[in-house]
């Protein structure tokens, strides 16, 4: 078995759909001489999780996708017939009103967020990246991660604020470009604004319930694999406040 097929097998053994030989050879061409097989498999996995699943020649034609008309509201309940790899296009916390989320993001943009009666000052610019910066403000909101920029701070703050009782709605897309809404039926720990990236990959397991065209997410049938599409994530973060304001009509002139 040649190296490309060994990488295919290694990814398949990790429960991932099999990329094409053409795509794998493109990954290998960047590593000359090639490293050991485990390192190549790890690189291919990382590149796969960071790729747009709809990219031509990324996955084999037999890669599992949503059945036709899965999003039909006419079907009361059905089950996914196979494991299906999807990517996240959007996430919304249904446990918080749009206006609450607007206020939270505006507070973060001002460099502060309230917790009870306490005002937490957040790091601005690259303050958290400065060596030796052990300010309590940085640690209180980001655990010292030093994630720069307003968008990064917004993601971190939202992540820390995600309640165990939160319910999230996602827009998921398969390798053929089909989009379906998904809703947490039971809390999935890694799903949250600030913890789940746009473009992140999720494996929906065989037997997952689809009710009225919406996939119901629960830990037993939803495996968050990681990754993100960097440009999607950046655009989503930067446009989130404007989208929320539009949704509540807060950007309309009086």
TrEMBL record:
It holds the Pfam family RMI1_N_C. GO terms for biological process: double-strand break repair via homologous recombination; resolution of meiotic recombination intermediates. Residues 66-240 form the RecQ mediated genome instability protein 1 OB-fold domain. GO terms for cellular component: nuclear body; RecQ family helicase-topoisomerase III complex. Residues 150-163 have a biased composition (Low complexity). Residues 116-167 are annotated as: Disordered. Residues 20-55 form the RMI1 N-terminal domain. Belongs to the RMI1 family. This is RecQ-mediated genome instability protein 1. It comes from Monosporascus ibericus.
